[in-house]
Amino acid sequence: MTKALVTGGAGFIGSHTVDLLLARGYSVRVLDALAPPVHQDGRVPDYLSPAVEFMRGDVRDRKAMLRALEGVDVVFHLAAYQDYLTDFSRFFDVNATGTALLYELIVNDRLPVQKVVVASSQSVYGEGKYRCAVDGVVYPPLRQEAQLKARQWEVLCPICGGSVQVETTDEAQVRPHNQYAMSKYAQEMIALNLGQRYNIPTVAMRYSITQGPRQSFRNAYSGICRIFVTRMLAGRAPVAYEDGGQLRDYVYVGDVARANVLVLEDPRADYQVFNVGGGAATSVLQYGVLVAQVLDADLTVAVPGEYRFGDTRHIISDISRLRALGWEPATPLPEIIAHYAAWAREQPGLGDPYAQAEQVMKQLGTVRTAGAG
After folding, report:
1. Whose CA is closest to 141, among 128, 122, 160, 123?
2. In CATH, which of 3.30.830.10, 1.10.150.670, 2.40.50.360, 3.40.50.720 is domain 3-369?
3. Which residues contact 107 (CB under 8 A, 6 or more apart)?
4. Consecutive 10-residue runs of the chain (373 residues): their mean pLDDT?
């Protein structure tokens, strides 16, 4: 029986990947620090199967990692630190240094690990790929503060300054521009380069916005599904940043778990990077309409003219490379929202976690207010 280690396996994507591995006959060990904000009480979550061998530990802890790797055939390295906070060093410490330690132990202790699948992020693209009528394909930089203050939300061509049209972004170019994105790209480079050099088959997965049951209420980075659903369940209007016209693609966590296991089992994926996305673009305002319909809520999205500095305007992943391996996103967005809402309603003390998170982000200057329109 193949033994898989899943770091971060008590978390959102990790636990769904664990479930699929167990269903496919793998023996599974989980290493998880159970750290806040995702895990508040330090307890192993009820949704984690009793068939799992659980170890509590940090991916930066050499002894904990070595114990977790003992007897392991394959690794899903999904443990990560993600937030909008400005503790920059922690992003690199957990995401990059933890990954470097994983490969260091495999190489120096000659561990018989056959493959590693590493969780990366769509965020490594920054603004991603656009097309200018004059200059062709362009990859714009981060929008400047003065532009956002003036409520000029749309990206401009970095060459001629004209308008551009968003295109789906393939895996070819990266331009990370926030601390999380930079740390995830550093993690990718560590994993793929060391994997290639030391003959450890490795795959990096750039997840789009992943959604579904078990998504933390407390992690500010967990995104629109959590915020909009919990706000509407509390009878409050959700808030859209900028003008709500931002385009994203959303993918169900169960579909992500299938992608993870697919690339593990398919040698064609070795030493490659894959986008894992939903295959369709949806604006923030359109998302709000869908949530209201699913919840039968008479609420609309508020647009107060605030913005989150450093946010991407539009990003939609091109998933053709993963499709070529036989994967397809199978869960439409209304169904994703319904799955999450059903799970959220069952959770005790749900409340409105967005209000406190918003206050913290405003205090830190992450969320700012534009000038008068």
Report:
1. 128
2. 3.40.50.720
3. 194, 198, 200
4. 98 97 98 85 91 98 98 98 85 96 98 98 96 98 94 97 98 94 97 98 98 82 84 94 97 98 98 97 98 97 92 96 98 97 87 66 79 71
Q: CA 42, CA 362: separation in Å to the nearest integer?
A: 28
Residues belonging to the chain: 373
- Per-residue pLDDT at 366: 76
Question: What's the pLDDT at 222?
Answer: 58
As a whole number of angstroms, the distance between CA 191 and CA 201 comes to 10
Strands 282-283 and 247-248: antiparallel
Longest dimension (CA), the chain: 63
Exposure on the CB side of residue 341, measured as CA atoms within 13 A: 20
Q: Strand 130-132 to strand 3-7: parallel, antiparallel, or no bridges (unpaired)? A: unpaired
The pLDDT of residue 39 is 76
Alpha-carbon distance 5 to 16, whole Å? 14
Taking each helix axis from N to C terminus, what angle separates 98-108 and 179-197, rounded to the nearest 10 degrees?
A: 10
- pLDDT, residue 38, reads 78
3 state DSSP class of 278: coil
**Sequence-distant (≥ 6) Cβ neighbours of residue 312 within 8 angstroms:** 123, 125, 126, 127, 128, 246
Buried b / exposed e along 306-324 (16+ C-beta atoms within 10 A): bbebbbbbbbbbbbeebee
In the chain, domain spans: 3-369
**Which H, E and C letters describe 103-141, residue by residue?**
HHHHHHCCCCCCEEEEEEEHHHHCCCCEEECCCEEECCC
What is the Cα Rg of the chain in Å? 20
- Token pair recorded at residue 68: 């977790």
Give backbone dihedrals phi and psi of 56, rounded to 5 degrees, phi first.
-90, 125
Q: What is the 3-state secondary structure (H, E, C) of 20-61?
A: HHHHCCCEEEEEECCCCCCCCCCCCCCCCCCCCEEEECCCCC
